[in-house]
Amino acid sequence: MSTPSDPNRGMDRPALSRRRMLRIGGSGFIGGLTLPRLLRLEAESATVVEPRAKACIFLFLQGGPSTIDMWDLKPDAAAEIRGPYKPIATSVPGTFVGEHCHRCARIADKYTILRTHSHDDGGHVTGSHYLFTGNRPNFADGQNSRVPVNELFPSVGSIVSRELGPGGSVPPYINMPHPLVAGGPGFYGAMHAPFVIESDPVQPDFEVKDLRPLDAMNLTRQQRREQMMARFETLEKARGLGGRPDVMATYYQKAHDLITSPTAREAFDLKAEPDHLRNAYGRTSLGQCALLSRRLVEAGCRFVGVDHGSWDTHFSCFPSLEKDLIPHADQAFSALVMDLDQRGLLDSTLVVMMGEMGRTPRVNAQAGRDHWSQAQSVLFAGGGTKRGAVIGATDKHASFPTADPVSIADLLRTIFHLMGIDCDKTYYTPLGRPVPIVNGGRIVHDIIA
């Protein structure tokens, strides 16, 4: 295979005529590609879809939320399966959620619950890598402590950044309140790395570090510093330091653009929001991150990844679930959906809330639930998704989907489809390896309005 002169330039796969596709498929050269699947792929690739979502807010419940205690209760199961929580009715007749999700119950007509997301990686770091890149990692769970861990494959946020580009004065891809563990750009490079807000919006003294210009530095002095930095970068390149100067120049330029943009600084100013709205989101890390996400989407951000931890509940899980974890997620998600809807932004903003896995249906001997990736519920709102729907079902213990499990590739393909991104577009690594935006998968049309 010949390597393109520019390995980072996107190149579409060669087009095949319908007759040639049918001949190849019928010959058996493409293993496992049946005629119906071939026709479906052809139809999807030939359909130009207007993007429904201009932006995505991804609320990542890191550690693994307990599906059976929140969105897929099994009240008829034994006590060691169903747990202590009772189902409550929602605003959608026939749809029930856990009793501690009462705010989300009241707005169930505005979002969709997918109950059949399933994969086979039960590790936190490896599962996150798989979820955010669509590719399995080349390391075992617990063997990689770097952040981000995805050194080769780009994350979903970086893909959105590259395909859609900036939508306003703020960076197209943002993480908060710290980097997503697998949220890096991979071989896409620094241009599509997330801008990370490494401070928590719930703190009274919250501000984005290094965003405020120095009061004592006038424009002339700033320009002299920029010229001096450019000279240093030229010297570093002359010393043969590879791509490091270019990478650092990218970060410097991003920082400079933010500091010199009053509109960007205003977008990060959470204090501009009225107290009643901040209270509605909840004075919690997840709540204030969700509110700031809405402000950033309004300012043109394409993908906001919010990392909310502490969901790895192996021991005595129910006190923390009912007092902290579930109420925080319930309030933040419901307030975000309502706020976006009232501002006319929900139809153009996709909101996703999920973890890298779920929890075991059976309560363990330490009164907790362990890792379980074979069945997890995912919440979708806005961005062209249905309202008030429940997609799929699990067995009597919420252990496995009863039919049509939704894989990670399916999930990513559906998200990108809603955002108008060609999932089959292929980029090449610096070594010439072709990497499609999504490798396989199907669009989950039941989610789409």
Tell me what you see in this structure.
This protein has helices spanning 18-27, 35-46, 67-70, 79-82, 102-106, 124-133, 156-164, 219-238, 244-259, 262-267, 275-281, 285-298, 317-342, 408-418, and strands at 55-61, 87-89, 96-98, 111-117, 173-176, 195-196, 303-308, 349-354, 358-359, 371-372, 376-381, 390-391, 426-428, 434-436. By secondary structure, the protein is an alpha/beta fold. The chain has two domains: 1-47, no CATH class; 53-212 and 260-447, Alkaline Phosphatase, subunit A (3-Layer(aba) Sandwich). An eight-stranded mixed β-sheet has the order 6-5-7-1-8-11-4-12, with helices on both faces. Strand 2 and strand 3 (96-98) form a beta hairpin. The radius of gyration is 23 Å and the shape is globular. The model is unreliable at 1-32 (pLDDT under 50).
Quick overview:
The protein is α/β, with parallel strands linked by helices and about 450 residues long. It is about 35% helix and about 10% strand.
The value of Rg in angstroms is 23 Å
CATH fold type of the largest domain: Alkaline Phosphatase, subunit A
Which CATH architecture of the largest domain would you pick?
A: 3-Layer(aba) Sandwich
Low-confidence stretches: 1-32
Biggest sheet, open or closed, and with what strands and sense? 8 strands, mixed
How many separate helices? Answer: 14
Number of strands: 14
Order of helices and strands: HHEHHEEHEHHEEHHHHHEHEEEEEHEE
Percent helix: 25-40%
* CATH top level class name of the largest domain: Alpha Beta
Specify the structural class: alpha/beta
- The overall pLDDT, averaged over residues, is 87
Task: Give the distance, in angstroms, between the N- and C-terminal Cα atoms.
Answer: 41 Å
Into which percentage range does the β-strand content fall? 5-15%
Our count of domains comes out at: 2
